């Protein structure tokens, strides 16, 4: 007789573990299955985000930022640093400690909320009379059952055809976070979020970094005024970014990696580097899930097909996060996890795709929510735009970081905020105010009329709102 639960969650990443906890809070008997392992073979809850994504990358970004500040900017503050050196094993060790703390934090939350955890890979076995059997393949194999299944199996790094990851020379985000030596020359294919963040880490630590991007525009999903400002800043820092390239043969040897490509002019080029990070997106992870055993429908990209409420084609089977449509963001997965748990309980879970914030944790940071100016133009929507540079912000001057701006877009007739785009210091934190404003359908006038602390970076948001009506006070 298999163990019976009300809800089984397959996957313990941000979407999965949050869904499990919320379902438990709502009174359900919940199990969560996750196969991630730590170095000792024990559970490492938190998924890609905690283990090889958001958390470790931010730890290294912070460490590398301290190193760059000490080496290049402390002197501006009257702080002299002599004999600056880099202890990479210690830096990687700190990153691993941060990851471990997050792993253990999720285990604690499961115990606190009485979620039963199974360490192993979950897969569908069969369904009968509205109940699904799920196999857990771990140290010991067993089958558990539940009426409601939430699939939250995440995503995997996309490979280039014919160039598999060896995580030694050809690296995914996983290998890029595990390097214990700074490569002299580092290549990146793809200038998306992961590529730019990893490129920033290793450039700060001393690598010569070249980014090859196939698209003709830099950060095509970002408002292009903001993207151009970011491109200028990254180029000034020393990142070499080539756009519109076509990657050809990639060869590895004892010396490193050689990438043959044609540039935007159609000229044949070669890039020789010690390490190559491939960051060309991610694909939904259904490996080992056995969806065919119960008839779970996948789309042509291998993602699980769901409706607007995250329901699959099977009754009481749900899917969330990277394994379904929509942006592959940890916080999007979390919101879907909460919403699904509440829908199972008969409540009305809420996820607004129009107010999901995006962040790139480079320096300067890039963050945005809502529509870009290009999207509004394409839709033929009349709008007003206001910008305010951090160069005119007192707190930014005191920080010594005046790169970038805040840009606000509002409806020309109603003044409702349609999008906010930021490149500059602490953009990841500043965007939260804008998300709240848009969720409540605020106008730019609402932000302009709210008192913001002085001196603070948030004043730039207020000033951008004032700029929509062409009445900035400090620029």
Keywords for this entry:
475 residues, alpha/beta, FAD/NAD(P)-binding domain, Enolase-like, domain 1, 3 domains, five-stranded mixed β-barrel, five-stranded parallel β-sheet, 13 helices, 21 strands, 32% helix
Structure description:
The chain is of the alpha/beta class. It folds into 3 domains: 3-157 and 283-351, FAD/NAD(P)-binding domain; 170-280, FAD/NAD(P)-binding domain, CATH 3.50.50; 357-468, Enolase-like, domain 1. 32% of the residues lie in helices and 26% in strands. The strands form 5 sheets. Strands 1-2-3-4-5 form a 5-stranded mixed beta barrel. Strand 11 and strand 12 form a beta hairpin. Helix 1 (14-25) packs parallel to helix 4 and helix 3 packs parallel to helix 6 (193-204). The protein is globular, with a radius of gyration of 24 Å.
Sheet with most strands: 5 strands, mixed, barrel
Percentage beta strand: 25-35%
Report the total helices.
Answer: 13
Report mean pLDDT, rounded to a whole number.
97
Counted beta strands: 21
């Amino acid at each position: 007789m298999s163990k019976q639960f009300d809800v089984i969650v397959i996957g313990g990443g941000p979407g999965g573990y949050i869904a499990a906890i919320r379902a438990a809070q709502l009174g359900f008997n919940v199990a969560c299955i996750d196969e991630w392992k730590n170095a000792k073979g024990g559970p490492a809850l938190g998924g890609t985000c905690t283990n090889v994504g958001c958390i470790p990358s931010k730890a290294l970004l912070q460490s590398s930022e301290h190193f760059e500040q000490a080496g290049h900017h402390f002197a501006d503050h009257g702080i002299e640093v002599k004999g600056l050196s880099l202890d990479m094993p210690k830096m990687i060790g700190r990153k691993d400690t941060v990851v471990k703390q997050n792993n253990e934090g999720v285990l604690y939350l499961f115990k606190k909320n009485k979620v039963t955890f199974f360490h192993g890979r979950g897969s569908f076995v069969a369904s009968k009379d509205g109940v699904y059997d799920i196999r857990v393949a771990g140290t010991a194999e067993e089958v558990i059952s539940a009426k409601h299944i939430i699939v939250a199996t995440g995503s995997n790094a996309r490979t280039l055809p014919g160039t598999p990851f060896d995580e030694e020379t050809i690296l995914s985000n996983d290998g890029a976070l595990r390097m214990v030596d700074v490569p002299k020359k580092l290549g990146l294919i793809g200038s998306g979020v992961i590529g730019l963040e990893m490129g920033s880490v290793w450039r700060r630590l001393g690598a010569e970094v070249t980014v090859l991007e196939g698209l003709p525009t830099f950060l095509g999903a970002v408002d292009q005024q903001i993207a151009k400002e970011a491109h200028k800043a990254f180029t000034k820092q020393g990142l070499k970014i080539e756009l519109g390239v076509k990657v050809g043969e990639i060869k590895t040897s004892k010396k490193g990696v050689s990438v043959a490509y044609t540039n935007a002019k159609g000229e044949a080029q070669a890039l020789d580097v010690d390490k190559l990070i491939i960051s060309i997106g991610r694909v939904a992870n259904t490996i080992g899930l056995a969806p065919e055993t119960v008839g779970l429908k996948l789309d042509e990209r291998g993602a699980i097909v769901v409706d607007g409420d995250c329901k699959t084609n099977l009754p009481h089977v749900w899917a969330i996060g990277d394994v379904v449509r929509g942006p592959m963001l940890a916080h999007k997965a979390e919101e879907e996890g909460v919403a699904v748990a509440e829908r199972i309980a008969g409540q009305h879970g809420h996820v607004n795709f129009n107010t999901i914030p995006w962040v790139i944790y480079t320096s300067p940071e890039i963050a945005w929510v809502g529509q870009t100016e290009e999207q509004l133009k394409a839709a033929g929507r009349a709008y007003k735009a206001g910008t305010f540079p951090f160069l005119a912000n007192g707190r930014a001057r005191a920080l010594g970081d005046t790169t970038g701006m805040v840009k606000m877009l509002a409806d020309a007739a109603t003044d409702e905020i349609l999008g906010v785009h930021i490149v500059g210091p602490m953009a990841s934190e500043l965007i939260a105010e804008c998300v709240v404003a848009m969720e409540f359908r605020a106008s730019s006038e609402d932000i302009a009329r709210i008192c913001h602390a002085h001196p603070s970076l948030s004043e730039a948001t207020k000033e951008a709102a004032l700029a929509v009506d062409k009445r900035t006070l400090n620029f």
